[in-house]
């Protein structure tokens, strides 16, 4: 068992099942409100798991009542424009999207405000049928600050993003599925098992290919088509220098399952 999994945290729980790691947000009394301490622990755990060769896929989840119901308002209400600028808390959030390994969000209950923004930092999203998603910051006299206006608009389009952010109203898991905001909706009893099932299937693939595929897809949001195609091509070429590429193609021609080692 890796030292990351054995590490002690106050606001999250980390466990491993074979080649997947599960990070649970663990502030149940406040619906997993995203305090600065929680986000710091989360980014620390993600960084360590990204370096752990035994782990190939990461699942991020909360509990049945809440993935995360938003920022910790008891902390945020004390801030001023100057203090929050100097604290630069979103620099910590930026580390989440720098995680190279695939992250699957398993979402139940509330995913609101910062919780939805955290969910949208993940790569695949499995939602419980009881999930409620939204950006209600407008009700507090503020707007999303951890990427909500940008990521939500890219997924659901201008008009739906305007509706959700300007009204602050929540949508259901089924509505999120129709909008392309989640990959799959599962019963409340099995949503986490569905996430584990997908994670274990992905974990069978080449770790290097997984990382470069994720990298190429994320590049879509930052470049023109021509630049994105060039980036994809470089990643494609790079994989032909790996042992996993040789193993994958040999296994295909020999009609057997490949054994990828991340080399």
- What's the number of structural domains? 2
Q: Beta-sheet strand percentage?
A: 15-25%
Terminal Cα span: 21 Å
Enter the CATH topology name of the largest domain.
2-enoyl-CoA Hydratase, Chain A, domain 1
Radius of gyration: 19 Å
Shape: globular
For the secondary structure, the number of strands is 10
Overall mean confidence score, pLDDT: 93
Structural class: alpha/beta
For the record, what CATH class of the largest domain applies?
Answer: Alpha Beta
Order of helices and strands: HEEHEEHHHEEHEEHHEHEHHHH
Unreliable residue runs: none
Biggest sheet, spatial arrangement of strands: 1-2-3-5-7-10
Largest sheet: 6 strands, mixed
CATH architecture of the largest domain: Alpha-Beta Complex
Helix amount, in percent? Answer: 40-55%
Q: What's the helix count?
A: 13
CATH homologous superfamily placement of the largest domain: 2-enoyl-CoA Hydratase, Chain A, domain 1
